[in-house]
Amino acid sequence: MARVVEKFGGTSVAGPDRIRIVADHVARRRNHGDEVVLVVSAMGSETDELLRMASDVAADPPGRELDMLITGGERKACALMAMALSDLGVPAASFTGSQAGFRTDASHTAAKIVEITPRRVVEAVERGLVPVVGGSQGVSGDGDVTFFGRGGSDTTAVALAHVLDADYCEIYTDVPGVFSADPRIVAEARRMDLVSFDELLEMTASGCPKPAMRAVELARTYGVELHVRSAFSWMPGTTVTGEEAMEHAIISAVTHDGSEAKMTVSGVADKPGVAGRLFRALADSDVNVDMIVQNVSSQGVTDISFTVPRLQLDAARSVAQGLIDELGADNVAADDDIARVSLIGAGMQTNPGVAARMFETLASAGINIEMISTSAIRISCVIRAGDMEPAVGALHQSFELHKDPAERATGY
Amino acid sequence: MARVVEKFGGTSVAGPDRIRIVADHVARRRNHGDEVVLVVSAMGSETDELLRMASDVAADPPGRELDMLITGGERKACALMAMALSDLGVPAASFTGSQAGFRTDASHTAAKIVEITPRRVVEAVERGLVPVVGGSQGVSGDGDVTFFGRGGSDTTAVALAHVLDADYCEIYTDVPGVFSADPRIVAEARRMDLVSFDELLEMTASGCPKPAMRAVELARTYGVELHVRSAFSWMPGTTVTGEEAMEHAIISAVTHDGSEAKMTVSGVADKPGVAGRLFRALADSDVNVDMIVQNVSSQGVTDISFTVPRLQLDAARSVAQGLIDELGADNVAADDDIARVSLIGAGMQTNPGVAARMFETLASAGINIEMISTSAIRISCVIRAGDMEPAVGALHQSFELHKDPAERATGY
């Protein structure tokens, strides 16, 4: 018998049929003797529809009211899921974030969990009920409804799994797990049985869409074992843990991100405080800077390049241009025709040949590299947007990611 | 300066445009120095849509989950209304029933208010905000979300007006007030400036659709002055009070109800306990019996006729048929081709000629009367369904309800 927190995303509960299918899965699971706690997201595109209505009534809706509005989506899905379970003879009870004991700060639309007192959820489990908890929501100290932000249901699930001391937490999505590359781009992409938290974080940060990064960070912090699975195939999926398996591959996956743009501030004085001034100003304007590369200084001046979400390019450009004089910069250039490809792998650190082979592979494919950034378990290259798909395919092939890890060539 | 609770029904807030129109009205009102507290219903047909989804996932959804689901409709409308107000520069804050302090019993889908502690609403008013309260909802002693039932937003508004000591409570609907007959049937129907609680209760009970009966009862109990108005024309509407005006008409209105069916249990032994046995059995089966008529006994046997909602006719018939032997009845007959027309008026009691003229008017129009029932301020006749509209027109004409009350003929 296991205690499991299962989280179902929007596509998994998009309509009454899907809700009934998920309820059937939970009923079977329960018949096997497992204790199940559910977390559900809003149905299908409901959150988008609610946001559209908000923008129809107000140019700049207050965060408090946005949270009141948006959390209704998860609440609706919860109630319907509890009904569907009851209809199958499984006693169930829906709980809002507040009822489930999620106390948060008052940062509306992006609230952070302060404390969880899951008394009602625990009582429900003890009484043999399946609790169905609304994802991504809680209540502030003032008694106002708060929303964690998009993707926050994963955070709800991981946090509940931790405080309920669950054996593991299953994140059900519309894909069957974590892949060695996006299967829409690389036909031979391989579902990974196992991935580490660190690798998944790097993958999420570099374009892999699921699960939400904040939830993975939380899972790593509290050692909550995650299973990333499909609510459409119900196949085993990918297990995410903090433990490194013996047979772990050097390279796990190729990821890509086509949603960013590149900015270059060139001819900047190479002296202390310059980068700090630039990135503090960007942060104050709520621009999410991702990759940052500063070239080697030549004759006392240097170039700073960084990537930002394409939607924030205009904001980033005006911040940077406003600082041209202060930074003593020559020029600010923006480029939104770029993409990023990344190689993820826990073993890369001790295999310096990996980076070389990555660059060689891209060169053989005639792809020019414009920026490079590395971490202990990731190498990212910024390339032309049009080169993204060929690059992913070439790298997946070169590192034999379609093969079982044990059967891949080693030694780069 | 007045303190006013304004309640807006579903059609008044059916979409973003309507919500902005209502917000504009509230902003103007506030500029005149009035303190406004809003209560809103779910948008348009949202409650029906939520109920349809419930029936799509479960044959018999638990009440607790229905309440969690349905109250989301009012909550959504509240948040959007608060956003629309903010957009016009009017500080506002939405509150769920629970946040507004509505404590109820645990009778899901038909919860009754136990206590109201409107601390947060009062604080909001004191801080100069417009509180926007979700109608028809509260929280039980167990912390579960509860729903008052359809039309419950009127109850929320009246109860709030009472506990906030408001000057009056405005019920905004899609019609401009209370009429002397349904304007769709009688072109000359007259909007009444004034109506008493008792008259409005009799009108509501006999087919006049708004406001909800329970809210009128509550308003009468606590002496809350009601204004029934249109959120489309913004005209003055009808005032409902406990005070009888000097110029009050003998007859106020003609109402009709085409939603019922008639049942007759004939040849019943005329002895104590028979009617009690029958109507207890119907009540136990949740059949809402309305008009009850028992004919004069002839030779120790009698007929009992009663009306029930047409949707409950099958249930009522099987209850009655199951009791045939026990009651010693000859026969159970059902008839769903009937309608009821009623004459409402506070002065009827002391004007016995009114009933006579009503029957004469129907006879002149060739309309047969099948059942008669009277109260102190109402006379109802059950007739053929096809006769309903001609009957309403003839009665409205005969009692000169199109004229100003002071100009009508008196002495029947």
Short structural description:
2 copies of one chain form a homodimer. Chain A is of the alpha/beta class and 412 residues long.
Describe this structure in words.
2 copies of one chain form a homodimer. With 412 residues, the first copy, chain A, is an alpha/beta fold. The first copy, chain A, has a domain at 3-174: 3-Layer(aba) Sandwich (Carbamate kinase), CATH 3.40.1160. The first copy, chain A, is 34% helix and 25% strand. The first copy, chain A, has 12 helices and 20 strands. The first copy, chain A, has helices at residues 16-31, 46-57, 63-87, 119-126, 152-163, 197-205, 213-222, 274-284, 313-322, 324-327, 353-364, 388-398, and strands spanning 3-8, 35-40, 92-95, 102-104, 113-116, 130-134, 137-140, 145-147, 168-173, 194-196, 226-230, 238-241, 253-257, 260-269, 292-294, 301-309, 331-335, 338-344, 371-375, 378-384. In chain A, the strands form 4 sheets. The first copy, chain A, has an 8-stranded mixed β-sheet, sandwiched between helices. In chain A, strands 5-4-7-8 form a 4-stranded mixed β-sheet. A 4-stranded antiparallel β-sheet of chain A has the order 13-18-20-19, sandwiched between helices. In chain A, helix 1 (16-31) packs across helix 3 and helix 5 (152-163) packs parallel to helix 7 (213-222). The radius of gyration of chain A is 23 Å and the shape is globular. The two termini of chain A are 45 Å apart. The mean pLDDT of chain A is 90. The interface between A and B is large, with 39 and 39 residues.
